[in-house]
Amino acid sequence: MKRRSSRTRRSRSRNAALSVSAAALLASVPLLSGCSTDAHPGAAAVVGEQRISLSEVQSQVETVRDAQRELPEADDLIARSNTLTRETVAFLVRMEVVEQAAAEQGVEVTRRDVQQARQQAEASVGGAEELRQSALVPAQGMPLAGEQIDMVLRSNLLISGIAEAIGAGADPEGQMRVTRLLTDTAEEIGVDINPRYGEWDAQAFSLTENELPWLRVTEDTAA
Fold it and tell me: Exposure of 79 by Cβ count < 10 A (0-12 exposed, 13-18 middle, 19+ buried)?
């Protein structure tokens, strides 16, 4: 992880221990189709100029569901994460906001940085399989599988780099400064959500449920 001004990477491992609940920054999955905004047909969301497609959301959801189905408690896990589709949209939006905020601050994270963070995260929980299990069955938050784990690691490193770039410490005040920067970035670039998934609350940095009940999405109604 580095600044384009060649700043040293002293914060590379600052957030290396992965919080796999994917805070920072969920039954079988039916196909997603239709119901996009008129301005962005086929999109689950648009973040600035970046389009998050329905097919990308579906792929992410299926990755988690496939991993869950391999576990003995599959039925319970799937039932407990029945809003995975909407949570995945929120997850992808947050990841993209972090990417764009980092770019504005000149923060870069390489594939090697992510690989090293992955190794540190695995070591911190007892191994690669333990990391996958803790991500898939988190104490709180949405389950993660496959590339989503590396996406969270990358996001953590970017956030750490953003904090360094703006001189924010690890204390609550510093964390609030980073949060304000992310919410300001989301507001500045614009986040357009397909109404079937809810509405973007820039200050909460999250999706809120649409007030119209027929537009609320669970996986039973996502087809």
Answer: exposed
Per residue in 4-55, pLDDT tens?
444 434 443 333 334 443 333 422 222 233 333 455 678 999 999 999 999 9
Amino acid, single-letter form, for residue 113: D
Structure tokens at 168: 């924010």
pTM to 2 decimal places: 0.78
Task: For residue 42, list its beta bridge partners.
Answer: none
